[in-house]
């Protein structure tokens, strides 16, 4: 009791503002009230429920794949989704979908976490790998192109990998653990790169409704400010993996992230305001926007003749890894012999196949 | 003062991959209490073996590091001004990586 009193004293001699029974553990975002752990769980889960219902994210009977990397956001997502699905009878068939990029020392460890999640949450797991889909692991790609543009490859390949995994599972929707911070970073990145087309789309809570599989982000309004996902995962002792991708220190996104974190410190509303700005951008009518079509090689959604993944893959396979990155230059084909050796090494030679054999 | 310090979310890599540290922190001469500010400086000097900029920025933790004192967010107890007591448990979790 003495211990409890001392802590209560240090915490401002108050009890939880919501239940008035337990000692507060943190400040509630937005209202700054001091609340205890149990009330935090309720508030957090209810907020997500309201976002799901208010934005009509799902319909009863839908099959939904949860993009699971083993990290804190996707673990919290898997936990909360299965909890809310049960509690509020969403009637959804939930699955875990994981992407194996082939990064030793990072992905192999986090996949172990997802396999544990499969058991812990009782959700069937499907893993898709770059090696199977494209014939290349990220480690192999980095060996060829170095550390500067590797995230470009990974991002493009991962998007497609998720769609292919989702098609395999025959799901109606894909759900990911992107939160407000992530979306704010994306808005900033698109501004920095002048990517007008993406800028107009990236703040929607559901994207890709005109593509193969729509994907939504129930955590869109969850600010990492006050570190909600982390706090939730920590208190609930959820099993998650928490190391940075070994290649990520070179990612451009890191700069946006650092910048936003600093802004947030001075003005906590910075994140939600960036998203609001992003939602309200209007593209000038005189701007030429890319038209949407399909890739000639694999049928995936694309605004060019070939989708970005096919272009990048072609570059890798032909020993021209800069194809599709910035201005294309012709590099010496000293790598060609190595590529030939790859093709003949016996395992599924996806390189000779088109980018994917699933119909879109 | 005996304290238990826990590092998570990747921060343990800065302290020789050890997650839990049972430490004995000396109070500064003439001072009776230990604040979080003092503790942070102590940790930076004594526990962080590499890349201190991942843990601290200036006097306080880098933005994105969650700090819990006895399972309570340090925002509740005054952040840097929080006074620590014998046998307190302080947890540092980094949040700045993909999830």
UniProtKB/TrEMBL annotation, chain A:
Q: In which pathway does it act?
A: tRNA modification; 5-methoxycarbonylmethyl-2-thiouridine-tRNA biosynthesis
Where is each Cytoplasmic tRNA 2-thiolation protein 1 C-terminal domain found?
293-323
InterPro entries linked: CTU1-like_ATP-bd, CTU1_C, Ncs6/Tuc1/Ctu1, Rossmann-like_a/b/a_fold, TilS/TtcA_N, tRNA_thiolation_TtcA_Ctu1
| Gene3D superfamilies recorded | HUPs (3.40.50.620)
Q: Which GO terms describe its biological process?
A: protein urmylation; tRNA wobble position uridine thiolation
Basic and acidic residues: which segments have biased composition?
336-351
User: What is the enzyme's class at the highest EC level?
Assistant: transferase
Q: Which domain of life is it from?
A: Eukaryota
Q: What EC designation does it have? A: 2.7.7.-
Protein localization:
Cytoplasm
Q: Where is this region: Disordered?
A: 336-360
The UniProt record gives the binding positions of ATP as 67-69, 73, 99, 177, 182
Q: Which GO CC annotations does the UniProt entry carry?
A: cytosolic tRNA wobble base thiouridylase complex; mitochondrion
Keyword Lipid metabolism in record: no
- UniProt main location, coarse: cytoplasm
User: In what residue span(s) does the tRNA(Ile)-lysidine/2-thiocytidine synthase N-terminal domain sit?
Assistant: 64-221
Q: Name one GO molecular function term.
A: nucleotidyltransferase activity
Q: Which keywords appear in this protein's UniProt record, sorted alphabetically?
A: ATP-binding, Cytoplasm, Nucleotide-binding, RNA-binding, Transferase, tRNA processing, tRNA-binding
Q: What does this protein do?
A: Plays a central role in 2-thiolation of mcm(5)S(2)U at tRNA wobble positions of tRNA(Lys), tRNA(Glu) and tRNA(Gln). Directly binds tRNAs and probably acts by catalyzing adenylation of tRNAs, an intermediate required for 2-thiolation. It is unclear whether it acts as a sulfurtransferase that transfers sulfur from thiocarboxylated URM1 onto the uridine of tRNAs at wobble position.
Which family is this sequence assigned to?
A: Belongs to the TtcA family. CTU1/NCS6/ATPBD3 subfamily.
Name of this chain's protein: Cytoplasmic tRNA 2-thiolation protein 1
Organism expressing this protein natively: Linum tenue
Taxonomic lineage of this organism? Eukaryota, Viridiplantae, Streptophyta, Embryophyta, Tracheophyta
From TrEMBL, chain B:
Give residue numbers for the modification (1-thioglycine).
Answer: 99
Lineage, top-rank taxon, reads: Eukaryota
- Alphabetized InterPro entries for the sequence: Beta-grasp_dom_sf, Mopterin_synth/thiamin_S_b, Urm1
Q: Which organism is it from?
A: Linum tenue
Predominant location category:
cytoplasm
Gene3D superfamilies xref list: 3.10.20.30
Q: Report the function annotation for this chain.
A: Acts as a sulfur carrier required for 2-thiolation of mcm(5)S(2)U at tRNA wobble positions of cytosolic tRNA(Lys), tRNA(Glu) and tRNA(Gln). Serves as sulfur donor in tRNA 2-thiolation reaction by being thiocarboxylated (-COSH) at its C-terminus by MOCS3. The sulfur is then transferred to tRNA to form 2-thiolation of mcm(5)S(2)U. Also acts as a ubiquitin-like protein (UBL) that is covalently conjugated via an isopeptide bond to lysine residues of target proteins.
One Pfam family, short name: Urm1
Give the record's family classification: Belongs to the URM1 family.
Q: Could you read off the lineage of the organism from its UniProt record?
A: Eukaryota, Viridiplantae, Streptophyta, Embryophyta, Tracheophyta
Q: Pathway membership of this protein?
A: tRNA modification; 5-methoxycarbonylmethyl-2-thiouridine-tRNA biosynthesis
Keyword tRNA processing recorded: yes
**PTM per Swiss-Prot/TrEMBL:** C-terminal thiocarboxylation occurs in 2 steps, it is first acyl-adenylated (-COAMP) via the hesA/moeB/thiF part of the MOCS3/UBA4 homolog, then thiocarboxylated (-COSH) via the rhodanese domain of the MOCS3/UBA4 homolog.
Q: Name one GO cellular component term.
A: cytosol
Residues joined by cross-link Glycyl lysine isopeptide (Gly-Lys) (interchain with K-? in acceptor proteins): 99
Q: Where in the cell is it found?
A: Cytoplasm
Keyword tRNA processing among UniProt keywords: yes
Keyword list, A-Z: Cytoplasm, Isopeptide bond, tRNA processing, Ubl conjugation pathway
The protein's name is: Ubiquitin-related modifier 1 homolog
Q: Name one GO biological process term.
A: tRNA wobble uridine modification
